[in-house]
Amino acid sequence: MIETNDTLPVKEILTAAGPFIKAVVDTYVTPKLEKLKKRFTLDYNNYHVPTKEHFSEYFYRTYKRVSIINTLVFNNSQRFIKDIYLPLTLIQKTEKKEIRYKIQSFPSLLFKKYEKLLITDNAGMGKSTLVKKLFLDTIDEKKGIPLLIELRRLSKEKTIIAEIQEQLNSLAKDFNSSLLLELLNEGGFVIFLDGYDEIPLSDREIVTADLQSFISKANNNTFILTSRPENALKGFGDFQEVKIEPLKKKEAFELLRKYDKQGP
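The chain above was modelled as a monomer; its predicted structure follows.
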């Protein structure tokens, strides 16, 4: 795992992340791209298939973006998420008992048990922070190919495939969406779908149908969906629902100390 502190510049964080990103690309991405190329006898340039360089650039860009959070608590200052993250506990309720999963690192056993996980809770409970931490853990621990999709960016006009294309697309023309789906269906991706409740209500029905279709077509992967409680989530009945356990008073004070000890 990459250790951080309040004096470590962002540039050094990305330098430290470099070997982990390279390992994810070499271990997971490159073999899948080569398999796809042989399967369809593809020319990457002609068919606009994403390359390992696209994934590397996406990982660096997203790693930088999610590593830092702005906090309004102390003069809108920036903090490294790993410095202030307090392990959250997910609660799964069954008919007979509650099962708790404390998330300190990438939860391999939980994701092996449930490849489709729905995290629901009210605003301010830490869903997005948890997703960002898990994205970083996926790379740091070389657990798969992470993709982070902010669902508020989807609409009637913009499908999830279009959003993934855009995220991977800073270096090339549009990819062939069918080939991108073929690549995703190879498996090995950890796909974070953050903020279902933030999809505009006017687009909710169409976006939900698009998400359901995408998940069905790319179902060899791990999916993590987050949202406030919504009736429309019944459409994701094959997801195992868990909730975030509220912080105890002692934990809340510990979290404040994590912020305050790094203050100016």
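The longest strand covers residues 88-93.
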